[in-house]
Each structure stands twice: as structure tokens, then as C-alpha cells.
Amino acid sequence: MRDTLGEFEQMVLLAILHLGEDVYGVPIVDEIARRTGREVAPAAVYVTLRRLEEKAMVASWMGESTGERGGKARRYVRVTRAGLESLRASRKALDSMWRGLDTDLRGAR
Amino acid sequence: MTRPASGGGFNPPRVARAVLERLLPADVRESIAGDLDEFFQRDCRTHGPGRARLRYWRHTIALAIRFAIERGRDWRTQPMHTRMSWMDVKLGLRMLVKYPGLTIAGGLAIAIAIGLGAGWYDVSRDFFRPTIPLPEGDRIVEIEMRNPRIVGDEHRLLYDFMIWRHELKSVEELGAYRTLERLLSVGRANPEPVTVAEISASAFQLVRVPPILGRPLIEADEAPGAPGVVVLGYHVWQQRFGGGADVIGQTVQLGRATSTVVGVMPEGFAFPINHHMWVPLPLRPSGYAPLEGAPVRIFGRIAPGATQEYANVEVTAITDRVRASSPRTHEHLRPRVLAYGGESPGDSASIIELVVRHGPILLVLFVACLNVATLIYARTATREWEIALRYGLGANRMRIITQLFIEALVLAGVSAAIGVAAAHWAVTWGVTAYYSSLSGGAPFWIEPGLKPATIVYAIVLAIIGAAVLGVLPAIKATGINVQAQLRNLATGSTLRFGGVWTTAMIAQVAVTVICIPPAMGIGEEAWRDRRIRAQFPGHEYLAVRMSLDQDMTAGESDAEFVVRANNTYGELERRLAQEASVTAVTFAEQLPGMHGEVRRGEFDATAGSEPIPIPNLWTSTVAPTFFAAFDRPIVAGRGFNESDLSAGARHVIVNEGFARRFMNGASPVGRRVRYAIADAAAPEEWLEIVGVVRDIGTTPTDLGEAPFVFHAARPRTMSPLTMGIRVGTDPSTFSERVRAIASTVDPGLRLEEMRRLDDWTWRIDLPAMVSASALAGVVVLGLFLSAAGIFSLMSVTVARRTREIGLRSALGASPGRLLVGIFSRAALLVGGGIVAGNLFILSVVAMSGGEAGMSFVLNALMRTSAVMLVVGLLACVEPARRVLTIDPTTALRDA
């Protein structure tokens, strides 16, 4: 059975997809904060990225050292095919749950 | 090496960075640290450096907490077979074979540490709070009366016992007993010695063990004039009465008294110590004066709702009141309620008890593990490739640490099994040997060998040991940046011995250096004493400890007892001397080779001058026949005669050792000696030296045979009384004959211990020999571990610097220069340890004011330093060979 994705995991994966190329920790934190309007703890993002990588939904690789970060290299990430499938499955499950409730929850939206 | 983050001229907090370095997983450390630097620079621009630093700290703490939680989650969710697999155990076993040096050195150290630990735990448990195998045995207590002015306890407690029995509320079923040796006569069979407990009937209520036949002792048996009764132990019943049920009602002769058998106790029952026959303890209804009556031991059971602490308070309060009314007898007496058979004064283990029980063990184990950890660390250094490869294949740090822990656990487990087996053997042998001299054998609660709880304790020690010696090196070996490790592996090992390991090894060398002189001193002394005593013909003599009790039940008066005792000993001597194989019979408090009494004394060498103080003066009370029985002639003056036996006689004989030491070999006959006591206002009387006897030669000291003063006395007044019989044939075959003669002379005569004199001496020498051997073993192990540590250090250094050595060799460095460059660290380590150890010894000697022995100490230190230096050099031989065989071409090509 495929691992289900938590809400924050979905946010991280979607943020990576929105950002496109050269994605690493800092822009992901910024992207989630910009789109959700709430402050995001970098620690939560790094732990989630590591967990997603363990589940093979994200792949990562080290970039070259850059002077602006004290010589420390960036770890770039991308969403894998398994990650995309999990996202689709999560969306499908949520859509299924929402179906038929749009009218009742209109006031709440 | 990383450069500081640029931009704005501000840097993140250093401490927070260091925390990140330590706590973040190695694979994401660099990237996350870089990201945080980016956040920091941006925060500096938007919020200012102060707030940026605060936010940096917040991120750091959040990361530390979240990754710690993640690690825990990973660990919990991993199935057991991926946390610890059978493969790890097999790998651990393979490592034992692959590194035989480490296996032998480390395994031996761990085995000794765990063996010592398990043995000590077992013995100390029995010492403080043994498990009493009786119903609610943990509530049974003994009440002791300590007297700080004498060594040991005051046992003349019948007066106090009768008060406690009426007044103590926190201890019930209070009873008293004393041990008697009696000759048991059943029908026409030969009388045989038995150990009898003269005991309160309440003992049988206390133990809650019913007899298998008849009844136990009851209160009515204690009443004055009650008929004599006896309860038998199982083995006495089986061996002496054939195990028949008709034993109840039979009469037996116990010494001079006739008793009727009223009950038989079940197998294994031996309360209060190791007793197998019980008779009532007669108490005078009119009571006793303070410290009057026979010495007894008091026992009882903590009452329901009471505690041992409260019982201590209550018994102390009662004794305080007695002290007020009887200050002369009770001024220095202090009662204590102790766990039965042990020394624990409280209901639960005190801090001191816990420290004494566990402190030495944990210290020895920690030191041993730290030593072995250095060896394992060195081995780990040779396996960096393997560790890096496992990282590369996806193993996390915890998995690798677990693997190294399991390897250490295998080593510790195998060592613990060997250590526990050795401890079991040693404790079994030690306990059996210790109690073999006790009439009746070991107490009923002592089982020779380690208990199951001790085995569990040893397993816990092994796990703790494995954690110390496996996890510490593993954390160190896996904590470095894996990327760097992978990059640098080609150039040689990246691990190195840091300050902590180096300091630990210097400390170890220093401790070994400190232990060598006392070990050598104690060992030399023990072997010297043994060698000298072995020259004495102790194998020709039979030594018998004996005593004779006044018959209170038959109303024997003091005067009647004196006459009977003199007649008994005189008749025994006469009858034994008539035996064909006996060439001499004598009496003394201590025979040659037994423990003698040592006192302070003063020698009046010249009339009118100050007496010469004698710090250690050996003294012994002997019969006039003593010197002849041991072939020791009087070399000056005269021997003892009948007049020296009177109560007012003040004549003594000294040995040649005394004359040599205080008269330069001249005769001290006519001069005076006395014992010195602390109260100068009331010195002891002077004793006139009437003769000098040849040295017996069984009490060697650093200055030759010890100075002795001999007093003359009749056997009746000697305490303890020992009879020496010189027998032409093997003395041990004569012991049955001695028993038979003694029983016909007086059935009340108790022969308590009888064995060959050399056997007696050997038992006295044994503890010193064992201590010396154990100390020597510890020192040898310390030397071995020091050598192993130095070897490890040098092996790792050579492995790390292989390329450098090759390069220097290619550039023309001579072998001598190469060796100096590499081994200067080992020299520093050994030299530092030797200097530290020597300084410690010298400061201790200087503080104790031992100037006279300074040359001796310096001599010992020189020998010690030489030994340590040789050991250090030997440890460097193999690494040095490796340095000299490094081929520059190969080393540079491999790099």
C-alpha cells in the first residue's frame, strides 16, 4: 500500500513543483510561507524533506560550494515519479471526500 | 574547511553553529547549515543582527529537537532484525578471531573486571544483607553491642537481653543463643564431637519451621529444674540414630549432661548459624548483673508495622537509660539492630552500603572498559572504509553505532562468561576455604558459588561495559563528516587519538607505575614469610584448640572447676606422652606459626636512663615445656620453672631477636621490659627477663625474626588454649587417637580445631599470598593494557601517516629520523605517565614523613620506571617495523 501523505508533506511537494528548478530548503520555506500566509519553521521543512526522501518521493543531490553561504553547498531536491503519484492519489482521495459537500460547506468556505 | 558566511559582516552565533555541527545528521549537515546562513544574512538585512541571531538560535533548537525526535522514531519503527541482526553477532564473533591481540588483551581485562565485579557483588551482598532462607527472613535481625574501646563486640549481654525481652516493642520473638562444642554419646557408640546451640525456645517461633518429628523447644524447657531435652538436626538424626521414628524419647549424653530427644528438625535447617542440635538456654530467674553471665548472641524479628530503623532507635533509647544507671559497664556500649547475618543497619540499603557494594566494581569496570575502548577505537580506525561504504549504501549513523555496539557486546559477553565462571569458581573455593576453619561449616544462608541475581548483575555489567567500550569509539568514528571521510580515505585514516584518549592512556601508565612498588613490596614480603615459615618442621606437630566449660547445670563452683581443669589438662598431657609415637606435648596460647598478639612495649636497657620504646612487641603465653617441645634451647639465663607459674610472678623469657634488636646481641637477662599503655599515670608493671631462647623462626620481619616476650602459665589460664603434640608419624593420622583419649579423660573437654601445624600456618599465609598474587595480577594486567594502548596509538599513527612517511622516505629521511618523528608521541605518553606516577608516589612518601625510606623508595621508583620503559619500548617494536618497511613508491602510488 502506498504511503499516505500528510498535509505538510503535500505542501512541501507542491512547493517544489511550483518552484521548478534549483529548488533547495530556503526557497521552499519562502514559497510555503508566501502561499499559505503563515510562518513556516525551517526545521519542519528539513525533517519533512528527509522523510520524503526516505519514502523515495523526493530525490536530492549536492550542488557546488558557493561563497555566499560560507562555502557550504546547497542540497537540491526534485519530486520523483513516486512523489507525483502520491500527490495525485492524495488529491483524488480528498476530491472524493469533498464531492457532494460543496453546497453544505459553502458558508464555511 | 568552511569559510565564514559573507554579507553584512555579521556571523551566526558560534555556539549555535557548534551545536548544529554536533546534532545534525552528517548527510544534511552542510546543506542545512548553509541554508541557515542564508536565512541569517537575510534576517540581518531585514531585522538587524540581534534579532537575526535570536532567530538563528530558534532554528537551531527546533532542528535539534525535531531531528532527535526523528531519530527516536526511526529507531522505534525499525523492526528488531534491522536494529540488531544475527549478522551483527556473527560479525562480532568474526572480529574476535580476526583481531586475536585485541580479543585476548581486551577480553582478559573485561573478564577480570566483570569477574571481580560479580564476585565482589556476591560477597558484599552476603556481607551486608544476605538472603535468609526462612519465612520473612528479611525481617529477622540480630542485636549487637559494639564497644569502640575493644576490637569486636561485647557479647556478655544476658543482663541487657532480659531488659530488651521485656521492654522492646519493635522486635518480637527475641531470643539468645550460644554455641557449645560437646561430645555426643549415643548408646555404646564412641562419643563424637557435635556443635550444639544453647538457645531460647522463642527461636522456633521465630523461624516458623515445624519439626518433622516430635516438638521444638518450648518455654517450659527453659525453667529451672526442667528435665534436659534436645532437638536433633536432620543429619544427626540420620547418621547417629539411623533415621528411625523411635528416636523421640531416647536419652543421649551431651558432654556431662543427659538429655531426652524431643524433636527432629527438617533437612537443611541449621538456625542460628550452622547448628544441628539444640538444647534450652538456661537463664537464672533472679536475673544477671550488667556484663555478667555467658557471652550470647541476640536475635529477633521486626514486629508488624515496625521498621529496623525504629528498632535501632528504641534499643538505643533503652541502652541510654541503662548507661545512666550502670555507667561503669555501659559507658562505651552502643547497640545496633542489624539485618540477620549481615551488617546492614537499615531497612533499605544506605548510600554508604550502595557505594561500597557498587563503587569499586563500577570504577574497575570503567577503567578496564576505557582501556579496551582505546584498543577498539584503534581497530575502528582500520575499518573506516567499511563504515564509509555502509554510509554510502544508506545505513544511518544509529545503525552503524548499533553494529559496533553489538560487536563490543559480543566481546563483553564472551569475556563476562569467562569472568563469571572464574568468579564462581573463586567464590566457591574462597567461601569453602573461609568457613572450613569454622566448626560446623558455613552459615545456613551461605551457598557457595554465585547466586542467580549475581549472574543478572554480571549481564548488566557486560551491557554497560559494551556501551562504554563500543559506543564511545563508535560515536567518535561516525561523527565526522562522511563526505570528507570518503574524499580523504585514499590518503590514509582520518581518525586520530585526541586529547581525551591520550590523557586516559597517560593516566593508565601513571596508575600502573603507582601500583608496581606496593605490589612488589607485598609480594616479596608474602613469599619471604612463606619461605621462612616453610623451613619450620610444622609437619611433625599436631595443633589442637581446646576448652573446658564450668558445669553450671551441675552447680560446679569456681574452686571445683579450677581443680578439675588442672587435673584434666595434666592427665591429658600425661596420657598423650605415654603414647609410643608422641615425643613431646605442650600447651600455649599460640603455637609457632599461628597469629601472635602484638603490643607496644618499653625496654629498660640501662638503669637510670629512659626506657627504649618498642612499637611492636610479640607476646605469647606458654607452658614451661614449650621450648623443649620445639627444640629451642635457652641460650642465656634460665628456662621457666614452677615458680614462674604463680599469679604474682613477673618473669619473662625473650628471644634472640629481642636481644639482637635492643642489646646488639648482648644478653638482656636481668633487665626489664613492660607493656606500654596509653595512660602513663598507671603504667604496667616491669617484667624481669630471666632467660633468652633461640629464635623459633616463624615470625619474620624486615629486620629478621620478630622480638618476642614469653610468659609462663598453666593451660587452665590460657585463652585461647592450644595443645601442641609432636608425633613421629604423620600427625593427622593421630587425631582420632587424641579424641579418644580426651573423651576418656573428661567428656566435657572440647577439641575444637585439630590439624597439622604446617596446615595451620599455610591457612594463615594463604590470604597474604592470595592478596599478593591478585595485586601482581592487576599490575601485570595494567602493564599489558598500557602496552596494548601504546601499541594501538602507534599503529593508528603509522596508518594515518603512511603517505607522509613514504614521502619523507623518498626525500631521503633516515630511518632514525623517521622513527623519532613518529614515536616522539609514544615517548611523551610513557614518559608523562612515569613522571606523573613517580611524582604521586614521592609526594605520598614525603607527606607521610618517610625520609628514612626515601632511598629505598627512589630505588623502587627507578626499577618501576625501567619496567614501564621496557614495556613501552616493546609495544613500539611492531609499529616501528611497519614504519621501516614502508615502500615510498607503493605509499605514494596508493595515495
Description:
The complex is a heterodimer of chains A (about 110) and B (about 900). Chain A has a single domain, classed as Winged helix-like DNA-binding domain superfamily/Winged helix DNA-binding domain (Arc Repressor Mutant, subunit A, Orthogonal Bundle), CATH 1.10.10. In chain A, about 50% of the residues lie in helices and about 15% in strands. Chain A contains four helices and two strands, in the order αααββα. In chain A, helix 1 (about 5-20) packs across helix 2. Chain A is elongated and about 55 Å long. Chain B folds into four domains: about 15-75, no CATH class; about 85-130 and about 355-495, no CATH class; about 135-350, no CATH class; about 540-755, no CATH class. Chain B has a six-stranded mixed beta barrel with strand order 2-3-8-5-7-6. Chain B has a six-stranded mixed beta barrel with strand order 13-14-21-16-18-17. In chain B, helix 18 (about 560-575) packs antiparallel against helix 21. Mean pLDDT of chain B is about 80; it is low at about 1-5. The interface of A and B includes residues 26, 29 and 75 of A.
List the helices and strands and how they pair.
The complex is a heterodimer of chains A (109) and B (895).
Chain A: H1 7-19, H2 25-36, H3 42-54, E1 58-65, E2 73-79, H4 81-98
Antiparallel strand pairs in A: 1-2
Chain B: H1 14-23, H2 26-47, H3 49-77, H4 80-83, H5 86-98, H6 100-128, E1 140-146, H7 158-167, E2 171-185, E3 192-199, H8 202-207, E4 213-214, E5 229-232, H9 234-241, E6 251-254, E7 257-264, E8 277-280, E9 297-302, H10 308-325, H11 327-330, E10 334-339, H12 351-381, H13 384-392, H14 397-436, H15 452-478, H16 482-488, H17 499-534, E11 541-548, H18 558-577, E12 582-588, E13 597-604, E14 612-622, H19 626-629, E15 634-637, E16 651-655, H20 656-663, E17 672-675, E18 687-693, E19 700-701, E20 704-705, E21 708-712, E22 721-727, H21 735-745, E23 749-756, H22 757-800, H23 802-810, H24 815-847, H25 854-884, H26 888-894
Parallel strand pairs in B: 3-8, 5-7, 14-21, 16-18
Antiparallel strand pairs in B: 1-9, 1-10, 2-3, 2-6, 2-9, 4-7, 5-8, 6-7, 11-22, 11-23, 12-22, 13-14, 13-17, 15-18, 16-21, 17-18, 19-20
Helix pairs in contact in B: 1-3, 2-3, 5-14, 6-12, 6-14, 6-15, 6-22, 7-10, 12-15, 12-17, 12-22, 14-15, 17-22, 17-24, 17-25, 18-21, 22-24, 22-25, 23-26, 24-25
